[in-house]
Write a structure and sequence with these properties.
The structure holds 2 protein chains of 2 kinds.
Chain A (H helix, E strand, L loop, with lengths): L1 H12 L1 H40 L1 E6 L1 H11 L9 H7 L5 E13 L17 E2 L16 E2 L4 E5 L3 H4 L3 E3 L11 E5 H7 L6 E10 L8 E17 L19 E4 L1 H5 L10 E8 L5 H10 L6 E5 L1 H43 L1 H9 L4 H52 L10 E3 L36 H28 L2 H8 L1
Parallel strand pairs in A: 5-10, 7-9
Antiparallel strand pairs in A: 1-11, 1-12, 2-5, 2-8, 2-11, 3-4, 6-9, 7-10, 8-9, 11-13
Helix pairs in contact in A: 1-11, 2-9, 2-11, 2-12, 9-11, 9-12, 10-13, 11-12
Chain B lengths: L2 E10 L9 E9 L2 E6 L6 H8 L7 E6 L2 E2 L5 H8 E4 L11 H11 L7 H11 L4 H4 L8 H13 L5 E5 L7 H16 L4 E5 L3 H5 L3 E6 L2 E4 L1
Parallel strand pairs in B: 3-8, 3-9, 6-7, 7-8
Antiparallel strand pairs in B: 1-2, 1-4, 4-5, 9-10
Helix pairs in contact in B: 3-4, 3-6, 4-6
Classes of the chains: A alpha+beta, B alpha/beta.
Chain lengths: 501, 221
């Protein structure tokens, strides 16, 4: 106990030297606090973006390979990913999550569509075909089927962002045969929750060419398990105003009910998938797995690295700067503190000699010196955390602005790659260009990324930073203590006193 | 009276020196006696004191404290608890006050005294340092005052052996008498062993045994 009392007295006895030591330690701590706050906050932002953006997988057709294949075979190569493959790809240990969604078209005698008087829509023009659809044309004339309901599965982002909400007692379809419809549609149809309806749908077989097309009819028997209140714009997704494009007529179904009806070579039900890797580093392993599961060679498997870099790049650069700064500060801090400690021991050699002559053990002398440094460091730590905490935000703003400007200049010089979610959609051929849709998700698809460039970061002094600073401070004082101990161990009191005398 | 320190054929040479300062020295020091060691400057008196006080170790031979070889004892504990040393140049903590010097010494020696500060003031008063002076930093004290503080510090932990190197060199006659009286009282009434290196005839006069250090050996005068 007296060691610490003596240390406290020594702090007051040697104000000049201790103030100088305190000033140096204070600068080291403030610099470390600012740098660590920036580093930790940047790290958090980057990890967050990585998890929801940087790890999103894109399956994109490689145009060079398509052209090459087309030239080799002489026939137009239409890259497709069958729905069953998309579903199979989702079952991977490399994925953090996979969002599978599906969409189709239907008509039903049990439901009275909102704006049904405006007619249906969404049907392809076939050159000829058998009757059976809701709007048949005379034989020999192109048949136009009209659809009144959009069938959706796993597309709930309007619910996530509050534009739609379940009514009381309602649930999302989680079992085969369940469906969710809008409250307006339920009332318009004079139905109630728990009623069962028949929903008709179809797939179109394009056949070998014009005049060879045919329909493959599908019948769903669905139980209404709930309704939703819809605050969205009725015709937000279409220029055409008809029952099919009216969003009140969207019917949510169980994913497997829709997806299981997908047939190879037939179109009409689209399956979309977005895959999120556990870590971007798993891309090559995931690619190998997809190839093994049958993904054609014409598809490239990539993460949206360019967009990721455009968005997160400045923060990563800032993190790099702050980390470098922390390392430099620590190295220089450690050297300075080591020198100070060494000088302090030399300067206080006589005092150490006297204490040793009085019988104080070497360890206790070193402990006393360490306690002095520790006290100075603790005071600097409190002050440093406060000052560093205040200084961190302006420094961050300055650094980030510089990095954003640098990134924008670099981007302007290069071809820009627009950021945005990439969703793979499949399920059957849809004419030239195939079913792969790049640059836009299925409407309302869950989990799509819509990250914006980071132009502002709110740095905060978290527990993590405080713990790191305390560890750094302890490390530095321990270095000082070790150096002092090492030097004291070399000194014999007799020699010190003789030198002095 | 009992032997407390025994020099057994002690030799000492400084590092790198070819000649021994102390050469095959043997002597006994008993409790309850005042010893003075006289000799010419450079004879090795201070070296002998540093060996006796455990600040240094012999090159050859042994110093026995209570029949135990000092080399095998913890010399820090020996210095802290068994020996009180009054250095010729005082060796006080100059940026601390007189009282702080005494209290620190008591702390190091793990003195059982409860109110160490009060004890320190009392001890300083005994050697002629009033409480106001006691609260001044050593640097602000005169040579004589510093010497008295050094004496008080050596006595602070009630050592069995008191070793002093020219302890009254800077004191006036009255204070010197007081200090010498303390020394004799410590030896004769409290059964301590007091060893004083001196050139002063007044100090030599109070000794029970006078040793002369010559040619690296001690001889009783």
């Amino acid at each position: 106990m007296y060691i610490f009392q003596n240390a406290m007295q020594n702090l007051l006895r040697n104000k000049g030297r201790n103030l100088m030591t305190a000033a140096i330690i204070f600068v080291v701590i403030v610099s470390s606090v600012v740098a660590l706050m920036i580093y930790n906050t940047s790290n958090g932002v980057i990890n967050d973006y990585k998890s929801r953006f940087g790890s999103e997988v894109s399956l994109t057709p490689n145009m060079e390979k398509i052209i090459e294949a087309t030239q080799t075979t002489g026939a137009l190569v239409r890259p497709t990913i069958p729905a069953e493959q998309l579903i199979a790809f989702a079952d991977s240990e490399h994925l953090l999550s996979a969002n599978l969604a599906a969409s189709g078209k239907g008509w039903s005698d049990d439901l009275k569509a909102i704006d049904g008087e405006k007619g249906g829509g969404g049907g392809p023009m076939l050159s000829a075909g058998p009757g059976g659809g809701p709007a048949n044309m005379p034989d020999g004339m192109p048949e136009l089927r009209q659809y009144f309901f959009r069938l959706l599965a796993n597309q709930y982002d309007d619910f996530e962002n509050g534009n739609r909400e379940l009514t009381e007692g309602s649930a999302f379809p989680e079992k085969p045969g369940e469906c969710l419809i809008s409250q307006e549609l339920l009332e318009n149809s004079g139905l109630k929750i728990g009623d069962t309806i028949v929903m008709n749908s179809d797939l179109i077989n394009p056949g070998s060419g014009p005049g060879d097309e045919s329909y493959h009819d599908i019948v769903f028997r669905l139980t209404i398990v709930g309704t939703y209140l819809d605050l969205t714009d009725e015709y937000a997704n279409s220029m055409m105003e008809n029952a099919f494009s009216n969003r009140r007529n969207e019917v949510f179904m169980y994913f497997n009910d829709l997806a299981s009806e997908v047939k190879e070579g037939l179109m009409g039900i689209d399956v979309g998938a977005t895959y999120y890797l556990k870590s971007p580093e798993l891309l090559s392993a995931f690619t190998a797995e997809l190839r093994a599961k049958g993904l054609e060679d014409v598809f490239d498997v990539t993460t949206n690295e360019a967009s990721y870099q455009a968005i997160v790049g400045p923060v990563e650069a800032m993190r790099g700067i702050s980390l470098t700064f922390v390392i430099i500060v620590l190295i220089f801090g450690a050297i300075i503190i080591a020198l100070l400690s060494s000088l302090a021991v030399r300067e206080r050699k006589y005092e150490i000699g006297v204490l040793r002559a009085m019988g104080m053990k070497k360890g206790k002398v070193a402990l006393g010196l360490w306690a002095e440094t520790l006290t100075i460091t603790a005071l600097c730590l409190v002050l440093g955390l406060a000052v560093g905490g205040l200084a961190a935000q302006p420094v961050t703003n300055l650094l980030l602005n510089q990095q954003v400007e640098a990134a924008e200049q670099a981007q302007a010089a290069a071809t820009p790659d627009p950021p945005g979610a990439v969703t793979v959609q499949g399920g059957g051929p849809q004419g030239v260009g195939g079913p792969i849709m790049i640059g836009g998700p299925i409407a309302g698809f869950i989990g799509q990324s819509s990250a914006e460039k980071i132009t502002n970061i709110d740095v905060g002094i978290g527990l993590n930073t405080v713990v790191q600073i305390i560890v750094i401070a302890l490390l530095l004082t321990s270095i000082a203590g070790l150096i002092a101990t090492r030097q004291i161990t070399k000194y014999e009191p007799m020699k010190i006193l003789m030198e002095r005398n | 009276m009992a032997n407390i320190l025994t020099l057994n054929n002690v030799s000492y040479a400084y590092e790198g020196a070819s000649k021994n300062v102390l050469q095959g020295m043997s002597a006994d020091f008993e409790t309850g006696r005042v010893y003075t060691i006289i000799g010419k400057s450079g004879a090795g008196k201070s070296t002998l004191l540093s060996l006796l006080s455990g600040l240094d170790v012999t090159t050859n031979g042994a110093i026995l404290f209570d029949d135990k070889n000092l080399k095998k004892l913890c010399r820090d504990t020996y210095r802290a608890q068994q020996v009180g040393v009054i250095f010729q140049s005082y060796n006080l903590l100059t940026n601390a006050t007189a009282v702080q010097n005494i209290v620190l010494s008591m702390n190091i020696s793990e003195s059982p005294e409860r109110d160490k500060k009060a004890f320190a003031y009392a001890l300083l008063a005994k050697v002629g340092i009033d409480s106001e002076t006691a609260d001044r930093k050593i640097l602000k004290l005169s040579g004589g005052e510093q010497q008295r503080v050094a004496i008080a510090r050596a006595l602070a932990h009630n050592p069995a052996i008191l070793i002093a190197d020219e302890p009254t060199g800077n004191l006036d006659k009255d204070t010197e008498d007081d200090i010498l009286h303390i020394f004799t009282k410590l030896a004769h009434e409290e059964n301590r062993c007091v060893i004083i290196v001196t050139h002063s005839k007044r100090v030599t006069a109070i000794a029970d045994v006078v040793y002369r250090l010559k040619d690296g050996r001690l001889a009783v005068v």
